[in-house]
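With this grant's support, we have settled on a layout for protein records. A representative record follows, to show the layout.
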Amino acid sequence: MNKVILMGRLTRDPEVRYSAGENALAIARYTLAVDRRFRRDGEASADFISCVSFGRTAEFAEKYFRQGLKIAVTGRIQTGSYTNRDGQKVYTTEVVVEEQEFAESKSSSDSYAASHPQNSAAAPSMPTPSAASADGFMNIPDGIDEELPFN
């Protein structure tokens, strides 16, 4: 079984490209900084995991994901190789994302961005509250987290 579950912060905005042809397919690539559970000599450390998503999942990443945002993904590990321009064989390992979701509230994300100035310019821009968005899902208004008893 090849199943991966990760939670971490985006190191940069997703890079999205579209395949050529009649039915263009969105392909999003991003890197997750995943904290290691145990610290060496009291210092935090992280692994930087390359992820790729396709189709609607990639379009969602393009629209809503920004540097510093904490997300959770599930998928599978895929390895490959290619020969670069110098004739060297390069080996790759990445997670092919099957599902992805936000791993924190918008207010938590905003407070993280405020405490990490390098990310503040890239704070996630979520849709404004309205009855329903184009995809038929209702947008959750800002500040509702404070009203919930189980937050």
User: Anything to note?
Assistant: The longest helix spans residues 55-64.
